[in-house]
Amino acid sequence: MKTNMLKPVIGLLILILTINISKAQEVKTFLDLPKLIVNPSLDMSYSPDNRQFTGISSLAVSPDGLMWAVWYAGITPGED
Questions:
Q1: Domain that holds residue 46
Q2: Could you count the other beta carbons within 10 Å of the beta carbon of residue 73?
Q3: Tell me, what's the pLDDT at 25?
Q4: What is the DSSP string of 7-22?
Q5: Which site among 4, 47, 55, 67 is 20 to 30 Å from 19 CA-CA?
Q6: Number of structural domains, the chain?
Q7: How far is CA 67 from CA 37, 62, 73, in A?
Q8: Cβ 7 vs Cβ 14: under 8 Å
């Protein structure tokens, strides 16, 4: 590729990357507080029959002492 074509191509790539990075930050659901499930036994969607797998459990403690237990689960026989 000739040098006079290289600058516009690099400029276009930088513009595309900048737009993609800024779009990625539009959805900030990771900042939403997690839903507190007080009594999961009252909701059938949390029953063992509807939970064919569970994975990556974790526990975190915030600086002010709040504890968070997290995991994911699914309804298919294997992780999907």
A1: 3-74
A2: 15
A3: 60
A4: HHHHHHHHHHHHHHHH
A5: 4
A6: 1
A7: 14, 6, 20
A8: no
Reduced to 3 states, what is the DSSP secondary structure of residue 65? coil
pLDDT at 45 over 60: yes
Tens of pLDDT along 2-30? 667 778 888 888 877 777 666 656 667 77
Look up residue 1 and give its two tokens.
Answer: 């590729």
Residues 6+ away with beta carbon under 8 Å from 78:
52, 53
In a domain, 79, yes or no: no
For the whole model, what pTM was predicted?
A: 0.33
Q: Which two tokens stand for residue 31?
A: 């900042």
> If residue 51 lies in a helix (H) or strand (E), which one and from where to where?
none
CA–CA distance, 8 with 1 (Å, rounded to integer): 12
